[in-house]
Amino acid sequence: MKPRGAVTDKLADILHMFQLARKMGQRAVEGSTHMVQQINARPSKMPYSLPMYISLLLAMTAIVPLLATVLSLEFILRPALIGQVNDALERDAQTKVHLMEVNLIERLNEVQAVSQSTLIRNFIVGDQAARDGAFDVLVTAQHRDVSHYMNWSLLDPSENIVLSYPTAPAAHGKYLILPEASQQLQKSGQVLISDVFYDATNNQESVDLYAHIVDDNFRLLGFVRASLDLRNIWTIVDSEIQANGPGSYGVLLDENGVRIAYTNTNPTNGLRPTLLLKAISPLSADFKLRVASENLYGNNQVPLTGLADPKLTDIQSQKEPPATFQMNPIEQNQVFAAARYSSTIVPWTYFVMKPLSAVTGLADEQLLSTFLIALLFLFLAIIVGSWTGRLITSPILRSMEQEHRAHVQQQRLNQMKDQILLDVSHELRTPLTEVYGYLELLAGYSGQLDDTTQMIFLKRAIDGCEELQMLINDVLETVRADNQPQVPHLQDILINHAVKDVLELFDLRTMQDYDLQITISETLMVRADPQYLRRVLRNLLSNAFKYTPPHTALVIDATLTINTPTGIPSSPSVCISVKDSGPGIPPDDISLLFQKFGRLNRDTSGPIRGVGLGLYISKRLVEAMNGQIWVESLGIVGQGSRFCFTLPLVVNPAYEETLHTDATIGEKS
C-alpha cells in the first residue's frame, strides 16, 4: 500500500466539512425565509409577536450548527481520528520495516560479494598463496560494519572451519551451519538468513548469514558464514515511543511466531523486555526439539517458552491479514490501535501499537467544550433576539434576500473551485506525497539515518519538488499564454550551446543511464527566443527520459531543411529532433499530443504523470518563433518516436555552399 499523502487528505477533509457547512447554511437560510414569509402572509393568526419569532429564529440559527457540530464530533471526527491514526501507524510500520530491510540488504550484498571473490575461491580450493588475500577480504568485510558484525568464517564443503576473522565462529548446538540452511545452500545461490540466536549474558541477539562458494562450473567449494548482531533492529523497534507517543510500542515476530524484538521502555537498565523471545502460541514438540538441537533463541541459557496472544495468532494465521486493526494485547489493560507490515527480505512481521484512548481523548474533550459553548450561545441568542427583534424585522428580510443571492453565487464559485481542486490534486497528489513522506522521514529519524540514506531521501524530495514546480509552471504558462500572449525576443542562437545548457538542468545520473548521442554542428544557428527554445528542448527531453528504457539510445539531431513536414518547399530552416527508443505512439493517438490537456489513453491510467500541457506549450512557442512541430512514430515498441521542430536558419558563410546544394537537390526532387 502506498503511503497516504497527509497534506492532500487533510485538504480533502477540510473541503468536505466546508461543503457540509454550506449545505447546512443553505437549509437554514431557506427555512428562515419561508418562516418569515408565512408570518407576514398571516399576521392575524400569529399567536406570538414577530419579535418573538425573530428571537426563536436567531436561537435556532445559532444552536442548530452547534448541535450539528456536536454530532459530527461524535460520528465523524472520532472515526476520522481513528482512521488517521491507523494510516499513520501503517506508514510507520512500513517505514520501520523498510529501514530494517535497507540494513539487511547491505549485509546480504556484502556476504554475496565475499562468496564471489576470486581470492576466496582460490584459497578455499587449497591455494595457500591466496591465504593472505582471502584474509584481507574477511577483514575488509568485517570493518564495513565493525560494530555489528561479530565474525566472518570460511568453511569447506564438510563445514569445517578453514579461515575466520576476528574470532572463530560459535557453534549452534553442534552445527556451524543450521541443517535446513545447509540443505538449501546445496541448491541455491542466494544468501540465507538463519533463525535468531540469543546470548543472555550480553543481552544480545544475532543471526547468521550463509552463502555458498562455487567455481565457474557451479561445483561447490565451500561456504561463507557471517554472524551479525541485531542491535540495529532493536534500535528501530525501541523508537516507537518517540514516534507515536507514550504507551506505544512495537513487536517483531519471526516466521515461528517468536517475538524477536520488543520495544524496551527503559533500554538503559540492560534488561530485556518481559515478552522478548516469547512465542505467541504454544510450541509444537518438533519445534521444541529443533530449538534445543540448534540452540535457537538462547535456549540453552533460558529455555524458550510461549506467552499466548490469541489476537496476534489469529492475525498471523489469516491468508490475507488486515493491515490495521484493534486489539487488547496481553499484559495491557486497554484497547490499542495496531498496524502490521511484513518484510519481503526476511520472513519477519512488524506490529506497531498505540493506545486508542490517546486518540479518542482529544475528541471527548472537544465534544464537552463544544456542548458547553452551545448552551452559552443558546442563552445569549434568546436574550439578544428579544431585544433586537423589533429593530431588525424589515432589514432582515432584505438581508436574507441578499444572503440568498450571495449563497447561490458562492455555490457556483465552490463548484468551480472543487473542479479545479479535483483536476489539480489528481496530478499533484503523488509528488506532494513523495516530498512530504521523505521530509517526514528525515525529520522523524534525524540522527538515526546514515549520510547516504539522508542524501537519497533529500534527492527524492527535491525531485518531487521539481516535478511539482514543472506542473504548476505548465498550468500558469498556459493561462498566461491564452490571456496575454507575449511577443518572442528573437536572437541568433547556436543550437549546440542551447542543447548543452538544457542538458545541464537534468540529473547527471539520469543521463548516464542512456546512450545519449548528439549530432549537431558547432556553428549551426537559428533565429529564436532563447527562453522559448530552452523550454521546448526541456519539454521534449523530459518526455524522452520518461518513456525511454534505460541503457538505450537517445539521439538529439539538427539538420538543414527547406521543406515542411508535408513536403512543401519553404525558406531555409533547421530541423531539430529528439529520437527515443521507447514504446512509440499509436498513429490514432498522435492527434491528441499537441492539444491542451491532451494525454494518450495508455498514460491516463499508467505510472507516468503529467497534465498534458508540455507539448501544447511547446507547439505555441515554436509557432510563435515562425516554426512548426510534429512527431513521427509507428507505435511499435522499441522503435520509439521522433519529435521534430523547425526554426528559421541563420546562414553562416560556412553553410552557404551546403544550403545552395540542398536547395538544388530540393528543386530537382
What do you see in this structure?
By secondary structure, the chain is α+β, with helices and mostly antiparallel strands. It has 4 domains: 1-44 and 392-484, Helix Hairpins (Orthogonal Bundle); 116-229, PAS domain (Beta-Lactamase, 2-Layer Sandwich); 241-290 and 303-351, Beta-Lactamase; 491-668, Histidine kinase-like ATPase, C-terminal domain (Heat Shock Protein 90, 2-Layer Sandwich). It is 51% helix and 17% strand. It has 18 helices and 20 strands. The protein has helices spanning 6-41, 50-115, 118-124, 131-144, 179-185, 231-238, 240-244, 285-294, 310-317, 357-388, 393-444, 451-483, 495-503, 508-512, 530-547, 601-604, 614-624, 653-668; strands spanning 149-155, 161-165, 192-193, 197-199, 204-214, 220-229, 249-253, 259-262, 278-279, 305-306, 324-327, 336-342, 349-355, 491-494, 515-519, 525-528, 553-563, 569-579, 629-632, 642-650. Strands 14, 15, 16, 17, 18, 19 and 20 form a 7-stranded mixed β-sheet that branches. Strand 11 (324-327) and strand 12 (336-342) form a beta hairpin. Helix 1 runs antiparallel to helix 2 (50-115), helix 1 (6-41) packs antiparallel against helix 11 (393-444) and helix 2 runs antiparallel to helix 10 (357-388). The two termini are 60 Å apart. Residues 1-26, 39-46 and 663-669 have low confidence and may be disordered.
